[in-house]
Amino acid sequence: MSVRRLPPVALTVPRLLAARAAAEPEHVAVQQGGATLDLARWQARTQAVAAGLRAAGVRVGDRVGLLYGARDWIGYVCAYMGVLAAGAVAVPMSTRAAPDEVAYMLEHSGATALLHGQDAARFDARVRLRWGPDEVAELPDAAPGDGPRPGDPAQILYTSGTTGRPKGVIAAHANLTHGARLDPPLRTLAHSRQFLHAFPIGTNAGQTMLFNALTAHAGMLVTARFGPEHFARLIEQQQVGSVFVVPAMAIELLASGALERHDTSGVVLFGSTAAALPPAVASGLAAALPGATIVNYYTSTEAAPTQTSMIFSQERPAAIGLAVAGGALRVCDEAGQPCPAGVTGEVWMRSAGAPRAYLNDAAATSQVFRAGWTRMGDIGYLDADGYLFLVDRESDVIKSGADKVSTIAVEAALHEHPDIVEASVFGLPDPVLGLAPAAALVTTRDLRLADVRRFLATRLAGHEQPSRIVRVAELPRNAGGKVVKSRLRALFDRAATAAHADPEAGPAASNSSAIPSASETSGQEAAKPWPKQ
User: Fold this and answer.
1) Could you tell me if 282 and 303 lie in one domain?
2) Pairing mode, if any, of strands 153-158 and 219-222?
3) Burial class of residue 523, CB neighbours in 10 A (0-12, 13-18, 19+)
4) Cβ proximity of 29 and 217 under 8 Å
5) Would you say 472 and 447 are in contact if contact means Cβ atoms under 8 Å apart?
6) Closest C-alpha among 282, 278, 277, 231 to residue 258
């Protein structure tokens, strides 16, 4: 006789915390510097904040801004949980954002209250209630209240805004807790005592780490700044078993040699998220961390918590992976019909749980969220076994003459060059082709365009090769670690008066000017690295 398996019960985030705090009160969920937060204290501070907000007049469904810096993760996770336990909606933000951006998020979300950390004094927030660290610390312990329901909204998380103004993505408790259990037979990251990351607050990657701290076997070890030497030293000193980065961090770790100078043999899982990990970088990580499984994760603020997961394999070095946790993938043509294996189209992802939506933007919601499916904004294809391969961001594909150029493919080829540390490829106006590929490069030495093109000759077709290059100190990135290509295009605009044709570039580049790979342009917008706070 078969036993029918019951579907999982929809949960709220505060209920998950309460259940785990009761079962494992002394478990250290968060550690930053010398400060720690165990589950019992996390639960106590959560209820104190919730009771204080209710007493101050914050009602169920009210939006509450959370403005914290990278040094204040413990204060942030307590404030976040307290807002949710009060039945209010959290609006996470980072002090790395510009004041105008914070003002926009507070106004757009309709926030009436703000909880903030030490670094938020410069932000002029027009809200009814504003509490800093001192006010929050003085809140007395309190008994749990009724709390929210699974279908109630829990958070509004703003997108990175790389292609326009940030959009608020609203998620219900049932979305955030999808797949979670009050008493799971096995917790994730069971092989690790701690997991390490340096993601900023207010990003989708940062929120994923917060929920790892809530549900995983391993506790969160977070550092306010990322530097390869500091990061590798933490891995060694704390005997970290799981590490999470974005590709920019992985590239810095490899290029610096920090992984070789420190004992990282305890790393079992090395995960990369936020952007596709170049195959050459993944291969380098596999060699530097022979005892670790290298995993590439793919999702978006709109699609989370659904994601794909791919263990790096030399058989499929560029694959992004298969959908996990009950999700599904499809690649569709312009008519919305599924494409056969190997055919390029738009990437869509479906969650098995409650979908998300844009706040106050019905038109954009109807374009991106359809019948449980989320449009990812990427172009890609599935192979015969269902593995996803990304071709490019839909907005980044370069339409050069009659050809379409994948910036991801060009960047992957550039990363194979021994003197190129990082690369970002984008289209620049061309009088004949419309657009032509250009590249901003972080290199260990000066490289001429002709040298780069000779290296790429056996790796890329002629129309895919950069017609212009510029050497920069660092690539400009937003809080989520993604390159802001508009700032790189501006470098070429300002340098246009100094541009000249490269006589060695060959016929394929004769229709475009070549900007010298000199360092005079590297100290401007491009000199904004991943935050090393």
Assistant:
1) no
2) unpaired
3) exposed
4) no
5) no
6) 231
How far is it, in rounded angstroms, from Cα 150 to Cα 9? 9
d(CA 95, CA 133): 14
CATH number, position 365: 2.30.38.10
Q: Determine contact, residues 74/35, Cβ cutoff 8 Å.
A: yes
Three-state DSSP at 318 gives: coil
List, for residues 2-50, the tens digit of each pLDDT value.
Answer: 434 444 567 999 999 999 999 999 999 999 999 999 999 999 999 999 9
Residues ≥6 apart with Cβ < 8 Å to 24? 39
- pTM for this model (two decimals): 0.85
Instruction: For residue 254, give the H/E element and its range.
Output: helix 247-256
- The closest alpha carbon to 222, from 210, 236, 237, 239, belongs to 210
Q: Indicate whether 332 and 447 sit together in one domain.
A: no
- Integer Cα distance of 446 and 455 in angstroms: 14
- pLDDT for position 529: 36
Domain boundary among 150, 178, 206: 178
As a three-state string, the secondary structure of 142-204 is CCCCCCCCCCCEEEEEECCCCCCCCCEEEEEHHHHCCCCCCCCCCCCCCCCCEEEECCCCCCH
Q: How many domains does the chain have?
A: 4
Distance CA 270, CA 253 (A): 12
Helix 73-85 / helix 13-23 crossing angle, nearest 10 deg: 120
Using one digit for the tens of pLDDT, what is the confidence trace for 69-85? 999 999 999 999 999 99
- Find where tokens 């946790």 sit: 325
